[in-house]
Design goal:
By secondary structure, the protein is an alpha/beta fold. The protein has 3 domains: 9-114, Rossmann fold; 167-243, Helix Hairpins (Orthogonal Bundle), CATH 1.10.287; 248-423, Heat Shock Protein 90, CATH 3.30.565.10. The protein is built from 10 helices and 14 strands. The strands form 4 sheets. It has a 5-stranded parallel sheet with strand order 2-1-3-6-7, with helices on both faces. Strand 11 (315-323) and strand 12 (327-334) form a beta hairpin. The longest helix has 90 residues, at 116-205.
């Protein structure tokens, strides 16, 4: 309904008495309303006209030939006519009024009281109520449509959630099978590799006869590549165990300073080959810690070997110092190629290698830092890096001086799920 009260109203009078129709016509003419008036004299014609044409309001005589105004109101409402219906009646009793309103009449006026004021007041009130009802109906319709849309969306989201849950379960199972496969294959591959390495070492000892320089070179290459492959398989086995939650730390008391010195001595030859200065600074009054000796050695080896590998000249500096809250800080700083800013966020991802030209001449799988990060998580520690391309890098690891078995178990459970990202 778009007609406003100030617009020209289309009105219909339904009355078989010409005098009564004239009375209504004169009263409307004296009002300030703008209107177009149509007149019919029977209920049948009124019902047909109201169904075919659009009117803003209809005035119905209470007593029509063959049908009362009350029954006509019921008929019109049942047929879908919703415009205001004002009954003109010669009866002014309350019972009649109640019956009319129950049937769907908008208002009623006694014919004895018809005036321009009465008609104008009743007409405007009925139209305002009708418009309010129409707006309410439209609002309710929009609300129902919105609710239906929300129901559909919720149903779609629920289906998507169930699908994602099924996919997650499938991915978890695939990840578990993959981890078991990698762990099994890594274990199976280590046995023949150890044999190859062992036989190569025996041949190089030349206890059963001398080898030519060519044979020594070939066997040395077999030994070197076998050792590299064994290191790769060991890394894959480690990360698979961590991902599957099957790697446990073997806690023991040991001297961190001695471990640092032993690890540095093992790697010093690599630094000497590149004429790098390998500096060690231990600022610990008490160097006794409780942790996994072999895994701590693995972390130190990863950090130091990376620093040496990616440094062409200058130095590699390892420093150990105590922090508040019974924490230890180890930092490995180098003067190497550095890491570009856009690569820093991926540096601890498995199999990730910085895509820089100089790195292509260095072998590596990109697992060392990923394993270091995961191991430090198990140790309730952390690793951070500061680097600038072309200016070197500084890796810092923090971990508690004493790691208890209970703390280790809680920490391992808390990050096993998140560690899935390293091999996905």
């Amino acid at each position: 309904m778009t007609t406003m009260i100030d617009d020209c109203l289309r009105l219909l009078i339904v009355d078989d008495d010409e005098v009564d129709r004239m009375s209504v016509r004169r009263a409307l003419t004296k009002s300030r309303l703008k209107f177009e008036l149509s007149e019919v004299d029977s209920a049948e014609v009124a019902a047909a006209v109201l169904k075919e044409s659009a009117f803003d309001c209809a005035f119905l005589d209470y007593r029509l030939p063959g049908q009362s105004g009350l029954s006509l109101v019921r008929l019109l409402r049942e047929s879908g006519v919703r415009i205001p219906l004002i009954i003109l009646t010669g009866q002014g009793d309350e019972e009649t009024a109640v019956s009319l309103m129950k049937a769907g009449a908008s208002d009623y006026i006694s014919k004895a009281k018809i005036s321009s004021e009465a008609l104008s007041r009743a007409l405007q009130a009925a139209i305002r109520i009708y418009k309010a009802e129409q707006e309410t109906a439209m609002a309710n319709q929009r609300l129902r449509e919105t609710n239906e849309l929300l129901i559909r969306k919720n149903r779609e989201l629920e289906l998507q959630r169930e699908q994602i849950q099924r996919q997650n379960m499938q991915l978890t199972e695939v990840s578990r099978l993959k981890s078991e496969f990698l762990a099994t294959m890594s274990h199976e591959l280590r046995t023949p590799l150890n044999a190859i390495i062992g036989f190569s070492q025996i041949l190089l000892r030349q206890t059963k006869g001398n080898l030519t320089s060519y044979q020594i070179d070939m066997v040395s290459r077999v030994l070197s590549n076998g050792q590299n492959l064994l290191a790769l398989i060991s890394d894959i086995l480690d990360i698979s165990k961590i991902e599957a939650g099957r790697l446990e730390l073997k806690l023991e008391e040991f001297d961190l300073a001695q471990l640092i010195q032993a690890t540095v001595d093992e790697l010093r030859s690599l630094a000497d080959q590149k004429e790098l200065l390998l500096k060690v600074e231990i600022a610990l009054e008490d160097s006794q810690i409780c942790n996994d000796y072999q895994r701590m050695r693995q972390i130190l080896t990863n950090l130091l070997s990376n620093a040496i590998k990616f440094t062409e000249d200058g130095c590699v500096h390892l420093k150990a110092e105590a922090l508040p809250a019974n924490q230890i800080l180890l930092s490995v700083k180098d003067t190497g190629i550095g890491i570009a800013a856009d690569q820093l966020e991926h540096i601890f991802d498995a199999f990730h290698q910085v895509d820089q030209t100089v790195t292509r001449k260095h072998q590596g799988t990109g697992l060392g830092l990923a394993i270091t990060d995961l191991l430090l998580n198990m140790m309730q520690g952390s690793i951070a890096v500061e680097s600038e391309y072309g200016q070197g890098s500084c890796f810092q690891i923090r971990f508690p001086r004493r790691l208890s078995a209970e703390a280790q178990t809680a920490s391992a459970k808390s990050f096993v799920t998140s560690s899935q990202r390293f091999l996905t």
